[in-house]
Amino acid sequence: MALQILTFPNFTPPMWRAFINKIKLDTGVEITEASGTVTHDAFVFNYTYNSTVQVLEVQALKKPLFIPASVVVNGLQEEIAEISRSV
Q: Over the chain, what HEC string results?
């Protein structure tokens, strides 16, 4: 079951670059497109970055059964907030 779509407004191009660098560093997955699907272990995420309006959307499509949805959503929000602060 897919989780809610998380929308991050005011997500600048430097934040986007930091985001894709963090994904590569943490998972080894290289993001080369502004939208797509990332699979890592038992997780599957969709993402879309619109640089024109500077909005990032992320949605978890699949997660391990034993991890609550709230943990995944809160973790994503914290990661994005950390990236936003670091740029």
A: CCCCCEEECCCCHHHHHHHHHHHHHHHCCCCCCCEEEEEECCEEEEEEEECCCCEEEEEEEECCCCCCHHHHHHHHHHHHHHHHHHC
Q: Tell me, rounded to whole angstroms, the distance of Cα 24 from its chain centroid.
A: 12
Separation between Cα atoms, residue 77 and residue 83, nearest integer Å? 10
Q: Is the dihedral of CA 9, 14, 18, 20 positive or negative?
A: positive
Cα(80)–Cα(19) distance, integer angstroms = 8
What is the reported pTM?
Answer: 0.91
Residue 1 has pLDDT above 90, yes or no: no
Closest CA to 36 of 27, 47, 28, 21: 47
